[in-house]
Amino acid sequence: MKRDIDGFPYQSYIRPLVNENELMVRSEQFYQEMDSRRTVREFSDRPVSLDVVKNLLKTAGTAPSGAHKQPWTFCVVSNPDLKKKIREAAEAEERKNYEERMNAAWIQDLKPLGTNWEKPFLEMAPHLIAIFKKTYGKEGDHKVQHYYVNESVGLATGFLLAAIHQAGLVALTHTPSPMNFLSKILERPENEKPYLLIPIGYPLPETFVPALQRKPLEEIAVFY
What we know:
Helices cover 40% and strands 19% of the residues. The chain is of the alpha+beta class. The protein is globular and about 60 Å long.
């Protein structure tokens, strides 16, 4: 069913009613699934179908955005030569970070995670998803204003990470800083700025992750 409201087209929306017991079951199941999600740095070179990646990106594209401007571009890099260029550029910036830019406290906080400036996963993972935020849109020669860009792209990234995990794959949120090299290597337009770099794929058959604990509910939520 459709209608016009204030001159704009609307359509009816029906969300099937779920009883309280089913709500509890679904919410607990999804929590347990997402609680098993971990950041992985040891990727297998086992291939992942591009059709699967397309479905993951379609899910990311369902995220809400300011004024429905959808200010994101997902660049999927599977070409080995491009992945190599991205790795070399990322490692150059990360080496400067670890040797010059990061303070002692930052480096100490990273030690339990086992990170350093070397990023072999950028070549090993079958696909890299470079997420760009559109600071403004373009219609011909005219700029189109975008709203809450960082928040919108952050929401889409969250949807993407959940979709990757639900599909049975692993991912890493990589933020080499600065990331301007991504714009140059991937030849992105001036209205797009690099936001995040996410390798996705299968983990190595034997993979280890830090034995970390997430904060309990009472430390992350307040009920009024």
